[in-house]
């Protein structure tokens, strides 16, 4: 029998007994969404962090001119939310929507904190995942500082293998902060 | 008596007894460095995460052309290291050096993990600090995506109050990924 994808991800960091994983899973709620559905609107409270079981979501920022910037994609086995609004219980400044029909496991902040308290190895898991996310963002910033769009493009291919076949080119360009023309040039350069 | 700055920072997130803080402090080693001293060279292992008690450090990336990009500053009450090399026990791709004489408390990964295991509220502290760092990096990326150098400049003023008086303008420009001329223009615009 295949291991549950959430259990598989947790067990890359800490081992769980069957009972412990059952306990973990009790803190999540299954939520399914349709393609194009908006899961979190700007100005709403971000009640959940979503673990993507199947499908594809994204986090977007609309700037003052109405231009859309893609902060993050979330496909299978990724966690996705407005991190600031979720953790600080503030109103969201970002938008979360679905690019495909998507199945998730959703975790509230209260459940995350309860899990962390009652099963400290889950806190070890959350700390390791957050640290990895922090390191990935540092790399993305270094690519911006060196103004190297080619590095950014290849980082994206490494970070999200398979993504490029699933989303329109305009969204990849938005994530990279480049024009469609630059993206087209980048996709012809070998790493 | 003034509270120890490390204790003050921890207690913004979790409360500690005197005995617990003594236990925490036993895991740190005092290390002092001179202005211009390089604490971590590219290619070295990052043995420590540094809590800055007094002074000013920075993390830099040298690109292939020898151009210097500043990823992070660390002044009083900041944590600073090559996060990837430190957490993954890999060779550093970044450089950490001192812009002023600097006093730190240094923590090894082994000590961080031991503290997290033996005093779970310290893991809660590390998780909250890392989450806050993750959120700050997301904001910096959004400023890059919207290509808004003015936002980046004002984010820097908020993130590091007082920094701008302590470092050369060229370093501020390097952190923001702008030219000296652009920085000069930005510093004349009111927020």
UniProtKB/TrEMBL annotation, chains A, B:
Domain (Cyclic nucleotide-binding) ranges: 31-114
Protein origin, superkingdom: Bacteria
Pfam families: cNMP_binding (PF00027)
Transmembrane segments: none
CDD domains: CAP_ED
UniProt xrefs under Gene3D superfamilies: Jelly Rolls (2.60.120.10)
Protein name listed in UniProt: Crp/Fnr family transcriptional regulator
Organism for this UniProt entry: Labilibaculum manganireducens
């Amino acid at each position: 029998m295949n291991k549950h994808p959430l259990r598989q991800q947790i067990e890359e960091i800490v081992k769980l007994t069957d009972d412990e994983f059952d306990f973990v899973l009790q803190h999540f709620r299954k939520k399914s969404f349709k393609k194009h559905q908006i899961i979190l609107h700007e100005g709403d409270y971000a009640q959940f962090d979503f673990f993507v079981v199947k499908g594809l979501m994204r986090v977007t920022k609309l700037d003052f001119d109405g231009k859309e910037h893609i902060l993050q994609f979330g496909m299978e086995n990724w966690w996705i939310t407005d991190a600031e609004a979720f953790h600080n219980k503030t109103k969201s400044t970002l938008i979360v929507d679905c690019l495909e029909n998507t199945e998730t496991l959703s975790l509230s902040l209260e459940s995350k904190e309860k899990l962390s308290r009652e099963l400290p190895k889950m806190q070890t898991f959350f700390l390791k995942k957050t640290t990895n996310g922090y390191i990935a963002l540092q790399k993305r910033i270094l690519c911006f500082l060196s103004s190297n769009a080619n590095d950014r493009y290849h980082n994206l291919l490494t970070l999200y293998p398979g993504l490029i076949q699933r989303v329109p080119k305009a969204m990849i360009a938005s994530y990279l902060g480049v024009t469609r023309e630059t993206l087209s040039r980048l996709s012809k350069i070998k790493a």
